[in-house]
Design a protein that fits this description.
Helix content is 92%, strand content 0%. It is mainly alpha-helical. It is rod-shaped. The chain crosses the membrane at residues 51-68.
């Protein structure tokens, strides 16, 4: 009987430790700074793709042409 009590206490202590580790991992994964860093990394990776680079360059050239035409007319 005493062995069962000790075993149960050890299991409870292990469950608490496991829960604490899980909560720490969740807190790390959902921290605002980490989420912002992950989003920044994804945005930079997307902007560095050739399709997006050339698309943005084309839009920039188009805007520049429109501005120059407005100024000269």
């Amino acid at each position: 009987m005493a062995g069962d009590t000790e075993r149960i206490e050890q299991e409870i202590a292990q469950a608490r430790e496991d829960l604490a580790k899980t909560l720490d991992a969740l807190a790390e994964r959902t921290s605002p700074q980490r989420l912002a860093d992950d989003l920044k990394t994804k945005v930079v990776a997307t902007l560095n793709t050739p399709a997006v680079k050339f698309g943005l360059a084309g839009v920039g050239v188009l805007v520049m042409v429109i501005v120059v035409r407005k100024i000269t007319h």
